Amino acid sequence: MRRRQFIALIGGSAATWPLVARAQQPAMPVLGFLSSRSPDESKHVLAAFHQGLSEAGFVEGKNIAVEYRWALGEYAKLSALAADLVKRNVTVIAAVGGDVSARAAEQATSTIPIVFGAGSDVVKAGLVKSLSKPEGNATGFTLLTNDLESKRLGLLHDLLPKANAVGVLYDPNFRPAVDQLTALENAAKTVALRLDVLRAGNDDDLNAGLQLLRNHRVSALLVTAAPYFDTRRGRIIEFAAENKIPAIYQFREYAVDGGLISYGPRITESYRQAGVYVGRILNGAKPGDLPVLQPTNFDFVINLKTAKALGLTIPAGLISFADEVIE
Fold first, then answer.
1. How far apart are CA 188 and CA 197, in angstroms?
2. Count of CB atoms within 10 A of residue 129's CB?
3. 146-265+299-326: CATH topology
4. Contact by Cβ (8 Å): 139, 286
5. Which of 65, 74, 83, 119 is most enclosed, with most CB atoms within 10 A?
6. Whole-model pTM?
7. Which of 94, 23, 60, 16 is nearest to 287 (CA)?
8. Model confidence over 29-80: pLDDT tens digits?
9. Distance of alpha carbon 94 from alpha carbon 32, whole angstroms
10. From the CA atom positions of the chain, what is the Rg in Å?
11. Is 317 exposed, middle or buried (0-12, 13-18, 19+ CB in 10 A)?
């Protein structure tokens, strides 16, 4: 073979190397992100989730793609959204925003790994067989926030010991609501409180329920833990401010946005850990071998600016008990 022909052959072969190399590269894994909530009010938890992914070595657009599906507080949409992610053959599903998302994902697939974010006892709810050894294709975190309603009512009573009626917003479409109401009713009996319970599972019911609260002139408001209320956080806080109603909520974000007080787990930390779990699964871990995570910190937050606007003086004992005071 002549030298000129040899060089031409080598040059022609080299030109194909990048194409061959690209063809042999594995496809980028695709994460399905399923949430009962909405993207506008979930920016803080989404940032925490991506922080966890990054800690595990995954960055969206660099070595992982993400398909987002948001139900916007309408739980009935979750089944179809989960089924769509399964149809797209995603590598892992992060099903967050409460038990409703986790249940929809588990009903959609028994093979794709799931990292869920729940708010209840996940063993009792049938999502896993045990906390330490979930088995199956699902693991994740539980915030246990649905089990804190009696504690929140107690804090309202400490704030307003002379109150005789407390309004309760609950979501009848949220499965844990039955247990939430039972816990609240039992707790109310111990301190002789009357509860005005109002159903609000959609926007029409929420508007009607808030109007009833205005007419009933309740002393305070307790908003039960439910993803739907998280998606309408601004509307509920605005109502409480306009009508001078002291209110307690489940997450710190409510107090930061102008709510009076909140008591619950650090949701951003749980989302960060969920991101880490997704990364571990992408790196080869089996979800059934990863224990379900539970919160280690529950924060009581007081917004003193809101208290001043309401004309309330927060007892010194409650302030000393608070984990965070917003001046």
1. 12
2. 13
3. Rossmann fold (3.40.50)
4. no
5. 119
6. 0.88
7. 94
8. 999 999 999 999 999 999 999 999 999 999 999 999 999 999 999 999 999 9
9. 6
10. 24
11. exposed
